[in-house]
Structures are given as structure tokens and as C-alpha cells.
Amino acid sequence: MTSTPPSPRPPGSALIRPATSDDLAAIRSILAAHGNDGPVVIADVVGPYVSHLIARGRSRVAVLDGEVIGFGAAIDTGRSTHLADLFVHPERLGQGIGRPLLAAVLDGAVQRTTFASEDARALPLYVRAGMQPMWVSLYVQGPSSALPAAPPSFRTESATSDRLAALERDWTGHGRSDDHGFWATMPDVDAFVVREAGAPVAFGYARTRQALPMRVVDRLVIHPDGEPVGSTLAALARAGRGGPVHLTLFGPHPVLRPLLDAGFRVVDRDVFLSSDPAIVDPARLIPNGGML
């Protein structure tokens, strides 16, 4: 059986190929050049994340003259093909690398989602790839000790990743067992269920950050009929352990005002884009930015 030769490329254009574990150091160098990776002070978060995308997702690198100069990856969330990352080395920006890299990563995807940074090039590129801006995505942090108390009917309990994958399958139709297995391996991870009056109404993960002594709500899924404010406050109180805590909020989430009133701050923002506004309920998902 003969192999299919690679498609011809214009002279000087980058070769786009699947990423492998051998590309990890080069990919992290590109991420660091954009401020998305850095020294491992507390525990390595980015390395395992990129390794998971390479093993589980659709990851591609752009290579020119033997050097990896771009990285893109998407992951199947069940609801959509979520563009996790798309980065070109800063010295190679504006050379026509990003668009074919994005096309290779999203090839064949119908339902598409991503987060666009404030880089002026990002949002137009994603709109042309079939996604529309939905709402702002806010990175919010503050002292968990100052949180308003969730109503007393809300309680949290530890759970296994298998239990959380089963809940996700029941609530959304998509179990994402491989991704739950990954989230359960994050540094100092805490997998938990939020119950209201004894019934599960949310589930999520919390972990440490790579370079700061701060906890993160890595992802929180709220039942389609669940009350989002109480569920989120209970999850934040558990995740923060009395110290600072960080989370990503979609702009329409009703917990934003109570958090700001409690002294939480918006420290950064992105824009969430989607090919279909019904893919995500912004009041019932605290997303993992890379994996939705």
C-alpha cells in the first residue's frame, strides 16, 4: 500500500502536520512568548494540558525550515469542536500562518466554539471561520473568605471523576470520560458535587495555579434546571479553602454582581464565540478556557 504524498506547498510556506509529544518544548516556548506559559512555581499545569491536547484532541503544528513556529489544537466537547489554542510565534505573525493552521485544526467541524483574546487579529479570524461573538468572558478573582454565604440548602461533597462524567452524560448527553480523567489529575485537584436539598445540582473541579498561590475553579457544570448563584457560591467557597480563588465567568452569569460586591475583581477578559448560541448556557457553565 502506497502512502498519499503530502499536498504541495508554495515555496516558503509552513508545513502543517499533527503535533507529537516531541513538540512539547517548542509549543511551550510559543505559548510563553504570548504570556500563556511561564515558570513552574507551584506545580506544572500547562505541560499536562498541552500533552492532553496532543493525545486526545486534534493538534497541529506549523513548521518552517525545521522549526515549529505555530500551534493549534481543538477538542471534541460533545457539544462542539472547541478551539483550545491557536498561536503563532510573535516573530512570524502576519506571514499567513494562522489561517491555514486554523483550517487544519477545525477541518470538518460543524459546531465550533472558542475564546478570542483582545488581539485585534483574533476575532476577525474566528468570525471568518464560522463563529460569532456571543458574550464577554471574564477572568475574576478575589478572597473566598469574603464570599456571600450560599443558602444553607447547598452542600458540597467529594466525588470521583467517573461520578462526574456520569452526571455530565445524564445532564448533557456527553460524558467526556477522557477529559474528566485528565481534570482529575491536575495539581492538588478537588473533584466535587454541589447538592441542594440532597439532590446534585452542580459538579466541578478545583486546583492550584501554576505560578501563584491561588485556587482555581477549573470547571463547574450546573444542572439545566439548577439555581446558578447558590451553586456557584457553594463551589467557590469549597474551591477557595479560605484563600484567594479564580474563575472564568461568562458575562451573563448572575453571580457576577454578588462577586463584585464582595470585593472580587475582573483581571482579564476574552470574547466567547460560537457557531450556534444554543451550544452553551452562560449561566450554567463555569468553563475551562481551553476545553470548555
User: What's the tally of helices?
Assistant: 8
The N- to C-terminal Cα distance equals: 40 Å
- Secondary structure: helix percent: 25-40%
Q: Radius of gyration, Cα only, in angstroms?
A: 19 Å
Helix and strand content put the structural class at alpha+beta
The beta-strand count equals 13
Shape: globular
H/E element sequence: EHHEEEHEHEEHHEEEHEHEE
Query: Mean pLDDT score, rounded?
Result: 95
How many strands, what sense, and barrel or not for the largest sheet? Answer: 13 strands, mixed
- Report low-confidence residues grouped into runs of 5 or more: 1-7
Q: How big a fraction of the residues is strand?
A: 25-35%
Describe the structure in your own words.
By secondary structure, the chain is of the alpha+beta class. 26% of the residues lie in helices and 33% in strands. The protein contains eight helices and 13 strands. The chain has helices at 24-33, 46-56, 98-106, 122-128, 161-172, 177-183, 228-240, 256-261; strands at residues 15-18, 58-64, 67-76, 81-88, 112-116, 132-143, 154-158, 190-196, 199-208, 215-222, 244-250, 265-274, 285-286. Strands 1, 2, 3, 4, 5, 6, 7, 8, 9, 10, 11, 12 and 13 form a 13-stranded mixed beta sheet that branches. Helix 5 (161-172) packs across helix 6 (177-183). The longest helix is centred in the last third of the chain and has 13 residues, at 228-240. It is globular and about 65 Å long. Mean pLDDT is 95; it is low at 1-7.
